[in-house]
Structures are given as structure tokens and as C-alpha cells.
Specification:
The complex is a heterodimer of chains A (431) and B (252). By secondary structure, chain A is mainly α. Chain A contains 18 helices and six strands. Chain A folds into two domains: 292 residues, no CATH class; 114 residues, 3-Layer(aba) Sandwich (abc type-2 transporter like fold), CATH 3.40.1710. In chain A, helix 2 runs parallel beside helix 11. Chain A is elongated, with a radius of gyration of 32 Å. Chain B has a single domain, classed as P-loop containing nucleotide triphosphate hydrolases (Rossmann fold, 3-Layer(aba) Sandwich). The chains are: A mainly alpha (431), B alpha/beta (252). At the A-B interface, helix 1, helix 10, helix 17 and helix 18 of A face helix 2, strand 5 and helix 3 of B.
Chain lengths: 431, 252
């Protein structure tokens, strides 16, 4: 094998693929643009929803028993609401521009004084009907609760002079610590870890492996569509030089694709985070607190998976007729391989699965990497090493399959098995 | 008689149920231009692909300069250069880059690669257009560039599958002249297939007629004309293939 020839093939491959619009847009620019647009849209939507959520409601109170009592006045002060007497129709008030109308009957004070739940009728006129309108009444509920707690505190003060409204709202202040892998963590750190396990790592695996499979398949599809494969196969290159040259180029592009996905994703979260903080709804934390050991296992596993993914891509692409065929076939292949990862997105920890389920996961290189990462995050070194070993077996297996399938004849006229299959299918269609 | 540069012995090849070659045998000697003539589906491309090491024969033997293309693939590939019938180009690369890519694969040093690129640029006759992406080339330009890439590496054996197929008269003449000049200057062995009898008559030292996967006649153009009492190779071919078609175009 000669490095000079490898370099020539890799350079040629990169130049041709990078200028291929399908690759350039689908892999490098697409994710970036998509996530920025999504981020902008999500930020705008969340910002407008959050603004609505924290916007002060316009409230009116109708008191049904003549002069308003003390509790009603406390409520009116907290809600900045005018108080009307029973002659006022609450629905008419809604039509004049109030968002909420609270109707208080004369037994309210007596009910609160007896320590029972007080029935209060609230009329709500949403500005427009949408999912948001279902959440909006929570604003008034919390304000009414707050007002009534204050009122209760006033009553209780007679018997417990030191009581505070805060005590009534939250009598216990709990400080919660998580204990995991021999260390205590705050809830924020646990959230970060869960985000890492169920979002960042599966996403990195998914984008890298899917991108690699697709670019490898497209690289073969381009050769077939442009009818350059036959000439390429007669050049004085060993099969290893040809495939490794392509592998280098595909790896560079796949990593470029991953960088683009990650940059897009980062932008997405940054925009979302900014939109929350700009309206004063609090900074949203998206820090992934994955341990260094787990990152190393993930990195090694990712390299092993990348190899298997590219070889799978070459095999799939070599049996397609053109670029579109190879893209379609590789998309389906990647989708099937990625199904277990989607399950991880929903927070299923693969290390907690049964031995049978783990053995089934081992059939799929993407999942095996997920298992290796999760095991190392959970401190199960044995399982993570076993998974990495499994990935090595995958690489060896796919190399053997490639050696059988990626010979010149099968690339030019198709593998005999696939030819037989398509003949059978064609016969069935005709009959 | 010199040693054969290409030895093809009793080749058999089937694609599933279709028999493409049924015992093809011939020899091409060093410095010779040898033409393989036959109708579509006769087995020309399959024969050339087997010689180039792209397809494995079901039975039979091929030797190129004494080497088996399947046991010593890189040795054979280094000595040959193959122009496939429907060869395409990398649409996003320039013609110059393509020549450089091929040269870097064949050459043993950067200097040798540079020499090859120069020779390729000259052979293609594309001048400044070599710097444009190949997607902007006409069919004739692409074919001339591919022939230049095939011959610039100075192969000892050039295998050309229908080199002028689908080209206009002007481009066909340019291609034929380039092949002839290369053969004369380098004393290389050239094996070509063609439908064009005039082209074969003009270029080839010896010719074989192939039909249904077997060689039905072989010899110099003159010998074949005499054998079939024909005025030109086209007539000789029709007579050799038979099948009830009279040469003058009338139905038998």
C-alpha cells in the first residue's frame, strides 16, 4: 500500500464530493441552516408564549354581598382588580375587555375562617384559542391562592403571631442531593448527566454514523452514475488503497457533517436559552456533565463505529445504480440501525436492559456504541469494554463482508445474489 | 513470432442464464493493433473486461504480458490502460485535475506525473478548456480527454472499448489519429473493439470477428477480405456472421 496513491484517491474523492450539491447541502449546510431556522422559530415561539404566560392578567371582581369584606379587598389589591357589586353581569365585564372575572359569594370569609376550601367562580375569556389558552388560567389560580393564603395568615396571626405567608406556602424547605457512582450531585448536575446520556451522546452517534454511511454510499453512487467506476477499478491501485483513500475522504466529510450538526444544535439551544433569559424567565442550562472516562470510551467507540458505518455505506452504495439509489438505500439502512438510539433519546438506559435485550442490541453497531457510552457513564467498566470489543468484532465482520462484496465484478454488474433476487422480483411482477 | 502481449485461451463467461462467452481464444502480439469486431451483445466488452481484470471468467485463461490479471492484479494494471465503452468523467473536477489524478496513480515520482499530465494535455487537444469543470464538456471533448488519460501513462497494453462510439466524424478522426500515432511512437500493443469497420480497417493490423461469444474469423484485414471475397470489412463481417442478411442492404 502506498501513501501517495491513498492521498491521490482521498483528494480526488474530497474534491468531487464536496462539489456535489447533494452532499454539500444535505450534510454540511443543511443541518446548520435547519437548526438556525428551527432555533429562530423556537426562540420566537417560546419568547412570545413566555411573554404571554408572565403578562399580568386584567381581572375584575364581582362581590355578591354588598360591601366587599377584607379578604375580597386583599384579593383586589394583589390582582389590581376593581370590585363590582352583584348587579354587574360577569359576562358583560368580559365583553368590555377583562380577561378574568372572579365572582365571590358572601360565604367566602366564613368558609376560610373555618379552614375549608373556598369555592370561587372564575370566568375566563382567552384572546385566542390555542394550547397556550389551556395554561393561562394557572396564572389566576396561583394569584388567587396567594391572596387567600395571605388572608389566612391574617386570620391565623391572632393565634400564631410569628407565622409567615412563606411558611404557609412551603412549610418544609427540602435540599435534595443525588448520589451516583460514588459522588453526590445536585439536581442540576443530574439533569446535565441525563441530557448527556439521552441526548448528546446518542445524537453524536446518530449524526456521525448516519452521515458516514450516507456519504460512503453516495461516494459509490457518484462513481456509478458518472460511469467512472470501471476506469477507477482498472487503475494500478490495490482494493485496500482504493477503499482506504475513499474512507479517509468520507471520514473527513462525515466529521464535517457532525461539526455542522453540533454547531447547528448549539446555535439552536443558545437561541432558545437567550430568548428565555431576555424575557427574564431564567437562564436555561444545557451543560452536558459527562465524565471524562465516558467521553474517551465514546470517542474510541465512535471511531470504531465510524469505520463500520463507512464500510456498510460502501457495500450499500456499491449495489445501487446511481446517487439517488445509494442515498435512498443508505438512508433506510441508517434508519433501521438507528432505531435503538431513538429509544435512548426517550431516556431508556441500555445498561438496565435484560441480558437478552443487550445481546440483541449488539447486532447493531450504533446501539453497541450507545451501550458502551452508557455503561461507562454508569461506572460499569466491564460492560463498556465488552461493548468496545463487540465493536471491534463488528469492524472485522463488515471488513470480511466488504471483501466478499466489493470485488470489481460485483460492483460493476451487481452481486449474483442480488441479481438473482431482482430477477425473481421481476418475474413475479410480470406474472 | 514474438511472445503474445495478450493471451486469451478458451474463455467462458455467463451472467446468470445468459451465456456471454463460449470459448473465446486469440492472441495479440507486442506492438500490434488488434481489433475485435462484433454486433451488440457478441461478447466484446465482456472479453475486454476480463482481460482488464474487472470480471472473472467462469473458465479459461488470460495472460497479459505473461501475468494473470487475477493473481497479479496490480502488476497487470500498471502495464495496461483501459478505456471503457461508456466511461464517464467526474463532473465537478476540471480536465486538468483528472489527468493529474490518473498520473499520480501511475507515476513513480512527482516529476514523472508532471510529464504525464503534459503529455495528456497535448493528446487531448483541449487547451485552455482543461481548466474548466468536466460537466461543461461536450461528448467529444470528454472522450478525447479519456483517451488522453488512457494513453498518457505510456501503457504497454492499451485496451480501448469502442473508442469512437457516438462521436461525430471530426472527433472520430481526431481519436483515430491519436491512437495510430501513439501505437507508432511507443510500439505499444493496442486491443480495441468497434462497430465501425472503416475504423478497424484503418487502424488494425489484425482483426477478429466475434459473434455469440465465439471468434468466428481472424486475420489481417486483407486476409479476411480475400477469405470472404469481400470489397470491405463490413461485407466480410456480414458474410462471416451470415444470418440471412445480404450485404447490399436488400433482404435475402
Amino acid at each position: 500500500m502506498q501513501a501517495r496513491k491513498l492521498k491521490a484517491v482521498a483528494k480526488k474523492e474530497l474534491r468531487e464530493l464536496v462539489k456535489e450539491r447533494l452532499v454539500l447541502f444535505g450534510l454540511l449546510l443543511g443541518p446548520l441552516i435547519m437548526y438556525v431556522i428551527m432555533g429562530g422559530a423556537a426562540a420566537a415561539a417560546s419568547s412570545s408564549m413566555a411573554k404571554q404566560a408572565i403578562a399580568p392578567p386584567r381581572v375584575a371582581i364581582v362581590y355578591e354581598a354588598g360591601e366587599p369584606d377584607n379578604i375580597t379587598l386583599v384579593l383586589a389589591r394583589i390582582l389590581h382588580a376593581p370590585v363590582f357589586n352583584e348587579s354587574m353581569d360577569p359576562l358583560r365585564l368580559l365583553d368590555t375587555g377583562y380577561e378574568f372575572v372572579i365572582v365571590i359569594n358572601k360565604s367566602l370569609s366564613a368558609t376560610i375562617a373555618s379552614g375549608k376550601q373556598a369555592p370561587i367562580t372564575v370566568y375566563y375569556k382567552p384572546k385566542s384559542l390555542g394550547w397556550f389558552s389551556l395554561n393561562r388560567p394557572k396564572v389566576i389560580e396561583s394569584l388567587v391562592d396567594k391572596a387567600l393564603l395571605n388572608a389566612t395568615a391574617i386570620i391565623l396571626k391572632k393565634y400564631m403571631p410569628d407565622i409567615t405567608p412563606e411558611y404557609l406556602q412551603n412549610p418544609a424547605r427540602i435540599q435534595l442531593y443525588y448520589y451516583h457512582n460514588g459522588r453526590t450531585m445536585s439536581q442540576g448536575q443530574v439533569v446535565g448527566l441525563i441530557m448527556g446520556v439521552s441526548l448528546a451522546i446518542p445524537l453524536a452517534i446518530l449524526t456521525t454514523a448516519v452521515a458516514a454511511t450516507q456519504v460512503a454510499a453516495i461516494s459509490m453512487g457518484v462513481e456509478k452514475e458518472a460511469k467512472t467506476l470501471e476506469k477507477l477499478l482498472t487503475l494500478p491501485l490495490s482494493r485496500e488503497e482504493l477503499l482506504l483513500g475513499k474512507l479517509f475522504a468520507v471520514t473527513v466529510l462525515a466529521l464535517g457533517g457532525v461539526a455542522s450538526y453540533m454547531a447547528g444544535l448549539y446555535t439552536y439551544f443558545a437561541m432558545l436559552s437567550h430568548s428565555y433569559s431576555s424575557i427574564g424567565a431564567g437562564q436555561v442550562s444545557f451543560q452536558f456533565t459527562v465524565p471524562v472516562g465516558a467521553l474517551i470510551v465514546t470517542g474510541v467507540g465512535l471511531a470504531l463505529t465510524l469505520y463500520a458505518s463507512i464500510v456498510i455505506g460502501f457495500i450499500v452504495g456499491s449495489q445501487a445504480h446511481d446517487v439517488r439509489g445509494s442515498q435512498l438505500a443508505s438512508s433506510y439502512t441508517a434508519m433501521v440501525l438507528a432505531i435503538p438510539l431513538f429509544i435512548m433519546f426517550f431516556g431508556v438506559d441500555p445498561t438496565q436492559l435484560s441480558a437478552t435485550a443487550k445481546a440483541l442490541l449488539a447486532i447493531d453497531p450504533y446501539s453497541l456504541l450507545g451501550l458502551a457510552s452508557s455503561a461507562s457513564i454508569n461506572g460499569d467498566t466491564g460492560l463498556s469494554m465488552l461493548s468496545l470489543l463487540g465493536l471491534l468484532v463488528h469492524d472485522a465482520f463488515w471488513t470480511l463482508v466488504a471483501a466478499r462484496l466489493l470485488d470489481a465484478e460485483s460492483m460493476i454488474v451487481g452481486h449474483p445474489l442480488l441479481r438473482r433476487l431482482s430477477r425473481v422480483l421481476a418475474k413475479r411482477r410480470t406474472s | 513470432m514474438p511472445a503474445p502481449a495478450i493471451l486469451v485461451d478458451d474463455l467462458h463467461k455467463s451472467y446468470d442464464e445468459v451465456r456471454a462467452l463460449n470459448g473465446v481464444s486469440f492472441q495479440v502480439y507486442e506492438g500490434e493493433i488488434y481489433g475485435l469486431i462484433g454486433p451488440n451483445g457478441a461478447g466484446k466488452t465482456t472479453t475486454l473486461r476480463i482481460i482488464a481484470g474487472l470480471l472473472r471468467p467462469d473458465d479459461g485463461r488470460v495472460l497479459v504480458l505473461g501475468h494473470d490479471p487475477f493473481r497479479e492484479p496490480v502488476k497487470v494494471k500498471k502495464a495496461i490502460s483501459y478505456l471503457p465503452e461508456e466511461a464517464g468523467v467526474y463532473k465537478n473536477l476540471t480536465g486538468e485535475y483528472f489527468l493529474r489524478f490518473i498520473a499520480e496513480i501511475y507515476a513513480d515520482s512527482p516529476h514523472e506525473a508532471e510529464e504525464m499530465v503534459k503529455r495528456g494535455a497535448e493528446l487531448s487537444g483541449l487547451g485552455e478548456r482543461l481548466r474548466s469543470p468536466m460537466k461543461t464538456y461536450s461528448k467529444g471533448m470528454k472522450r478525447r480527454l479519456l483517451l488522453a488519460a488512457t494513453l498518457m501513462t505510456n501503457p504497454r497494453v492499451a485496451i480501448l472499448d469502442e473508442p469512437t462510439s457516438g462521436l461525430d466524424v471530426y472527433n472520430s478522426v481526431l481519436m483515430r489519429n491519436a491512437i495510430r500515432e501513439y501505437a507508432r511512437d511507443s510500439n505499444a500493443t493496442i486491443l480495441l473493439s468497434s462497430h465501425n469497420m472503416l475504423e478497424v480497417e484503418y487502424l488494425c493490423d489484425r482483426v477478429a470477428f466475434i459473434d455469440h461469444g465465439v471468434i468466428i474469423a481472424e486475420g489481417t484485414p486483407k486476409e479476411l477480405l480475400e477469405k470472404y471475397g469481400a470489397a470491405n470489412l463490413e461485407e466480410a463481417f456480414v458474410k462471416a456472421v451470415g444470418g440471412g442478411i445480404a450485404y447490399a442492404g436488400s433482404k435475402a
